[in-house]
Amino acid sequence: MEKVRRLTKHWVKYEILVHFPEDGRMLPISVKATDTMKDLRVHLVKQGVTSWKKYFFYNGVQLGEHETVKSVNIKDGAVILLVSGARRHLVPCEDRSSQPLGQETGV
To answer: The whole model's pTM is what?
Structure first.
């Protein structure tokens, strides 16, 4: 039974949101733990969203193309930012909460 549980763990899908700060849109996407950021781009293209020259951020840190959902600890219900222009870290505005940008909230 343990083997079956471990095998099915790779097929479990998470529902995450991709936030586009330029226009305020939030797009839901189903991903697996083994999906890379490159796979997320493919999901977006299938839904008609171009992600050319845009970068994923989660918890205020830019994600690499070959990082997996599991390796960056993205959980079900998380929000990922897709922004234009590469930056190493995002710094939240002073008038926002102290929580890093792209981090899931309890709302």
So the answer is: 0.70
